[in-house]
From TrEMBL:
GO CC, any one term: cytosol
Stated name of the protein: Cytidine deaminase
Organism phylogeny: Bacteria, Pseudomonadati, Pseudomonadota, Alphaproteobacteria, Rhodobacterales
Gene Ontology molecular function: cytidine deaminase activity; identical protein binding; zinc ion binding
CDD domains: cytidine_deaminase
Reactions listed under catalytic activity: cytidine + H2O + H(+) = uridine + NH4(+); 2'-deoxycytidine + H2O + H(+) = 2'-deoxyuridine + NH4(+)
Cofactor: Zn(2+)
Binding site for Zn(2+): 50, 83, 86
PROSITE patterns: CYT_DCMP_DEAMINASES_1 (PS00903), CYT_DCMP_DEAMINASES_2 (PS51747)
Gene Ontology BP, a term: pyrimidine-containing compound metabolic process
InterPro entries: APOBEC/CMP_deaminase_Zn-bd (IPR016192), CMP_dCMP_dom (IPR002125), Cyt/Deoxycyt_deaminase (IPR050202), Cyt_deam_tetra (IPR006262), Cytidine_deaminase-like (IPR016193)
Protein backbone atom coordinates (compact mmCIF):
# COMPACT_ATOMS: atom_id res chain seq x y z
CA UNK A 1 0.00 0.00 0.00
CA UNK A 2 1.25 3.51 -0.81
CA UNK A 3 2.09 5.94 1.98
CA UNK A 4 -0.81 8.14 0.87
CA UNK A 5 -3.31 5.28 1.00
CA UNK A 6 -2.00 4.10 4.38
CA UNK A 7 -2.24 7.61 5.86
CA UNK A 8 -5.76 8.14 4.53
CA UNK A 9 -6.88 4.74 5.80
CA UNK A 10 -5.49 5.14 9.31
CA UNK A 11 -6.87 8.69 9.55
CA UNK A 12 -10.36 7.17 9.66
CA UNK A 13 -9.34 5.42 12.91
CA UNK A 14 -8.25 8.63 14.63
CA UNK A 15 -9.70 9.14 18.10
CA UNK A 16 -10.31 12.88 18.19
CA UNK A 17 -13.57 13.53 20.05
CA UNK A 18 -12.28 16.79 21.53
CA UNK A 19 -10.63 18.60 18.63
CA UNK A 20 -12.63 16.71 15.96
CA UNK A 21 -9.44 17.04 13.94
CA UNK A 22 -8.50 13.62 12.59
CA UNK A 23 -4.93 13.10 11.43
CA UNK A 24 -3.28 10.12 9.75
CA UNK A 25 0.45 9.58 9.29
CA UNK A 26 2.36 6.92 7.37
CA UNK A 27 6.09 6.43 7.32
CA UNK A 28 8.31 4.30 5.15
CA UNK A 29 10.92 2.42 7.14
CA UNK A 30 14.37 1.66 5.76
CA UNK A 31 13.16 -1.96 5.75
CA UNK A 32 10.63 -1.04 3.03
CA UNK A 33 7.65 -1.49 5.32
CA UNK A 34 4.92 1.11 5.78
CA UNK A 35 3.98 2.04 9.34
CA UNK A 36 0.96 4.13 10.18
CA UNK A 37 -0.57 5.95 13.11
CA UNK A 38 -3.42 8.30 14.00
CA UNK A 39 -3.92 10.88 16.71
CA UNK A 40 -5.32 9.53 19.98
CA UNK A 41 -6.79 12.21 22.23
CA UNK A 42 -7.61 12.04 25.93
CA UNK A 43 -10.03 13.84 28.22
CA UNK A 44 -6.89 15.03 30.00
CA UNK A 45 -5.98 17.05 26.92
CA UNK A 46 -2.15 17.10 27.22
CA UNK A 47 -2.13 13.30 27.28
CA UNK A 48 -3.25 13.12 23.66
CA UNK A 49 -0.76 11.87 21.10
CA UNK A 50 -0.15 12.91 17.50
CA UNK A 51 -0.52 10.71 14.44
CA UNK A 52 3.19 10.97 13.68
CA UNK A 53 4.07 9.69 17.16
CA UNK A 54 1.79 6.69 16.64
CA UNK A 55 3.43 5.82 13.32
CA UNK A 56 6.91 6.14 14.82
CA UNK A 57 5.91 3.91 17.75
CA UNK A 58 4.63 1.24 15.33
CA UNK A 59 7.91 1.36 13.39
CA UNK A 60 10.09 1.09 16.47
CA UNK A 61 7.94 -1.70 17.90
CA UNK A 62 8.52 -3.64 14.66
CA UNK A 63 12.28 -3.32 15.10
CA UNK A 64 13.00 -0.54 12.57
CA UNK A 65 14.58 2.72 13.72
CA UNK A 66 15.23 4.57 10.44
CA UNK A 67 12.59 6.20 8.28
CA UNK A 68 12.99 7.36 4.68
CA UNK A 69 9.71 9.11 3.83
CA UNK A 70 6.69 10.54 5.64
CA UNK A 71 3.09 11.34 4.60
CA UNK A 72 0.62 13.18 6.84
CA UNK A 73 -3.02 13.90 6.03
CA UNK A 74 -5.63 15.86 7.95
CA UNK A 75 -9.16 17.06 7.43
CA UNK A 76 -8.01 20.57 6.73
CA UNK A 77 -8.55 23.02 3.86
CA UNK A 78 -4.79 23.18 3.36
CA UNK A 79 -1.80 20.91 4.20
CA UNK A 80 -1.08 20.76 7.94
CA UNK A 81 2.56 20.65 9.04
CA UNK A 82 3.70 18.46 11.95
CA UNK A 83 3.75 20.15 15.37
CA UNK A 84 7.06 21.10 16.95
CA UNK A 85 7.24 17.97 19.07
CA UNK A 86 6.65 15.74 16.06
CA UNK A 87 9.37 17.54 14.10
CA UNK A 88 11.82 16.60 16.84
CA UNK A 89 10.51 13.01 16.91
CA UNK A 90 10.84 12.68 13.11
CA UNK A 91 14.39 14.08 13.28
CA UNK A 92 15.33 11.33 15.76
CA UNK A 93 14.67 8.62 13.17
CA UNK A 94 15.03 10.38 9.81
CA UNK A 95 17.89 12.27 8.14
CA UNK A 96 17.51 16.01 7.39
CA UNK A 97 16.92 15.16 3.71
CA UNK A 98 13.87 12.96 4.35
CA UNK A 99 10.78 14.33 2.59
CA UNK A 100 7.61 14.93 4.61
CA UNK A 101 4.52 15.30 2.43
CA UNK A 102 1.58 17.05 4.05
CA UNK A 103 -1.88 16.74 2.51
CA UNK A 104 -5.24 18.35 2.95
CA UNK A 105 -8.43 16.30 2.95
CA UNK A 106 -9.09 17.14 -0.70
CA UNK A 107 -5.62 16.20 -1.85
CA UNK A 108 -3.59 19.42 -1.88
CA UNK A 109 -0.01 18.39 -1.14
CA UNK A 110 3.01 20.26 0.15
CA UNK A 111 6.41 18.67 0.69
CA UNK A 112 9.24 19.82 2.95
CA UNK A 113 12.30 18.01 4.27
CA UNK A 114 12.85 17.28 7.94
CA UNK A 115 15.76 19.74 7.78
CA UNK A 116 13.46 22.48 6.53
CA UNK A 117 10.86 21.68 9.16
CA UNK A 118 13.39 21.71 11.99
CA UNK A 119 16.35 23.95 11.15
CA UNK A 120 19.08 24.05 13.78
CA UNK A 121 17.80 20.86 15.37
CA UNK A 122 19.11 19.75 18.73
CA UNK A 123 21.04 16.56 18.12
CA UNK A 124 23.42 14.08 19.72
CA UNK A 125 26.40 16.19 18.54
CA UNK A 126 25.40 18.89 21.01
CA UNK A 127 26.01 16.50 23.87
CA UNK A 128 29.48 15.45 22.76
CA UNK A 129 31.87 15.34 25.69
CA UNK A 130 29.15 14.50 28.15
O1 LIG B 1 0.66 17.17 12.67
C1 LIG B 1 -0.23 17.03 13.52
C2 LIG B 1 -0.96 18.11 14.04
C3 LIG B 1 -1.97 17.84 14.95
N1 LIG B 1 -2.23 16.56 15.33
C4 LIG B 1 -3.35 16.27 16.25
C5 LIG B 1 -3.13 16.52 17.71
C6 LIG B 1 -4.53 16.74 18.20
O2 LIG B 1 -5.16 15.48 18.47
C7 LIG B 1 -5.25 17.37 17.01
C8 LIG B 1 -5.44 18.87 17.13
O3 LIG B 1 -4.23 19.50 17.41
O4 LIG B 1 -4.47 17.06 15.88
C9 LIG B 1 -1.52 15.49 14.83
O5 LIG B 1 -1.79 14.33 15.13
N2 LIG B 1 -0.52 15.78 13.96
ZN1 LIG C 1 2.69 16.42 16.87
Amino acid sequence: MSLKDAAEKVREKAYAPYSKFKVGAAILGQDGQVYSGCNVENVAYPEGTCAEAGAIAAMVAAGETRLTEVYVVADSPFPVPPCGGCRQKLAEFGSPGVVVTMASADGIEKSMTIGELLPGAFGAEHMEGN
